Amino acid sequence: MDQADDILEMGEKPELKGEIIPGDLSAQEVEITQRGAHNVQGINVTMRQAGAHTIIAENLTIRQGGALRAEADHLEVTQGTLIAAKTKSVNLKTSKAGLIFAGGDTQMDQAGAPVLLSKGEVSMDQSGALVMISRKVKANHSGAIFMIAQEVEGDIKTVFGPKESLLFGAAAGILTGLSFFLFRLLPRAK
């Protein structure tokens, strides 16, 4: 039996340091430091200089760590990286995220996300996104390539606004469709 199994059987708060934790880890309170884990599930999960494949939690805090996939009601990432996150609210500080689906508000401070979809308000300070869709955006020295928002306040630079984004999407769709059509017309090698 390994350390993770011992802790789970005792029902105590796992506080683990060191190598990779084998198997799945599930407890109400989970704190992982300088370690890796495959799947982590808990009510309150804290990762410090640690990483995981998948994390599911009500409250998830990542400090100098990362995760491939995270699902949490409240997510806070400081100097960390996420590939994909689904959350009610998210706070990114000097962090990167690949894809964020936020059901509520999003705060970004010196952070970036290629794709950010938020049903709530996005507050950005020195942050950026490639594609951002939100109800309301408040920004300070921030930017986005494609942005669709009902209301925008502050200093945000965009390459494409809503009209340009729709035109760009339509043109990209037509070119992609035409490319596939022309590709099908090419003779096949025998």
Furnish the topology, listing elements before pairings.
Layout: H1 3-10, E1 15-17, E2 20-26, E3 29-33, E4 36-48, E5 51-63, E6 66-78, E7 81-93, E8 96-102, E9 106-109, E10 112-125, E11 128-160, H2 162-185
Parallel strand pairs: 1-3, 2-4, 3-4, 4-5, 5-6, 6-7, 7-8, 7-9, 8-10, 9-10, 10-11
Defining key terms:
17% helix, alpha/beta, 190 residues, 11 strands
Question: What do you see in this structure?
Answer:
The chain is α/β, with parallel strands linked by helices and 190 residues long. It contains two helices and eleven strands. The longest helix is centred in the C-terminal third of the chain and has 24 residues, at 162-185. Strands 1, 2, 3, 4, 5, 6, 7, 8, 9, 10 and 11 form an eleven-stranded parallel beta sheet that branches. It is 17% helix and 66% strand. The model is unreliable at 1-12 (pLDDT under 50). The relative contact order is 0.07. It has one domain (3-161).
Shape: globular
**Secondary structure tally: strands:** 11
Structural class: alpha/beta
Q: How many domains is the backbone divided into?
A: 1
Strand content: over 45%
Write down the overall mean pLDDT: 85
Number of helices: 2
Spans of 5+ residues with little confidence (pLDDT < 50)?
1-12
User: End-to-end span in angstroms?
Assistant: 58 Å
Helix/strand order:
HEEEEEEEEEEEH
Helix content: 10-25%
Largest sheet: 11 strands, parallel
The Rg value, from CA coordinates, equals 21 Å
